[in-house]
UniProtKB/TrEMBL annotation:
Function: Catalyzes an early step in riboflavin biosynthesis, the NADPH-dependent reduction of the ribose side chain of 2,5-diamino-6-ribosylamino-4(3H)-pyrimidinone 5'-phosphate, yielding 2,5-diamino-6-ribitylamino-4(3H)-pyrimidinone 5'-phosphate.
Keyword vocabulary terms for this entry: Riboflavin biosynthesis
The protein, known as: 2,5-diamino-6-ribosylamino-4(3H)-pyrimidinone 5'-phosphate reductase
Gene Ontology molecular functions: 5-amino-6-(5-phosphoribosylamino)uracil reductase activity
Keyword field contains Endoplasmic reticulum: no
Keyword Cell membrane assigned: no
Cited InterPro entries: DHFR-like_dom_sf (IPR024072), RibDG_C (IPR002734), Riboflavin_Biosynth_HTPR (IPR050765)
Domain of life: Eukaryota
Residues in Bacterial bifunctional deaminase-reductase C-terminal domain copies: 3-162
């Protein structure tokens, strides 16, 4: 079964990036095997700002070795000739995600709270994986920005990375139904 997963690093106060869009706040942890993480996915979809941040990692950018037809960046400003190792799309990314899902492909929606919110609004996300950093940013870009509806989540896993204090949380999207809410 195809998986459309929003996998993202988030500060404790719910931001995926500070206003200056830097990534220096993300706590490193050597126990995270990014190579194994990347092999879980057939396709990578991200916005331009996420792509810029990943590209800035230089030789540590694991996406640089992934074929062009598997890395898609949503942008109205990037030029194909200047970025031959990625596929640039401007519109219709929700329809493209649906096609990938129908084909049984596993997709990593990387960063971009607006992108993840649009995927959630369209009912395409199957799970949300959040690496909660032991950092408070106080402002910036929200983990989900522009939600049009509420969605229930089912907690699948919680893991604390002892050396860094990062908490890895995995939720299945739309898995729980709430008939009533109790007020304590």
């Amino acid at each position: 079964m195809a998986q459309i997963i929003y996998n993202v690093a988030m500060s404790l106060d719910g931001f995926i990036s500070p206003p200056d869009e830097s990534s220096s706040w993300i706590v490193p942890d050597r126990s995270i095997d990014f190579q194994a993480l990347y092999t879980r996915f057939d396709v990578f979809l991200m916005g331009r700002k996420t792509y810029d941040a990943i590209s800035a990692a230089g030789e540590h950018n694991l996406l640089r070795e992934i074929p062009r037809d598997r890395v898609f960046v949503i942008s109205r400003t990037l030029q194909h000739a200047e970025h031959p190792k990625i596929t640039i799309i401007q519109d219709s990314y929700v329809a493209l995600l649906q096609q990938w899902k129908d084909k049984g492909l596993n997709v990593w929606v990387m960063g971009g709270g607006w992108l993840a919110a649009q995927c959630l609004n369209a009912g395409l996300l199957t799970s949300i994986e959040v690496a909660v950093m032991p950092v408070v940013l106080g402002g910036g870009f929200k983990v989900l920005d522009g939600l049009a509806r509420s969605t229930s989540l089912q907690l699948l896993d919680v893991k604390k990375l002892a050396s860094s204090g990062i908490v890895m949380i995995t939720y299945k999207v739309g898995a729980m139904q709430h008939d009533t809410w109790a007020i304590l």
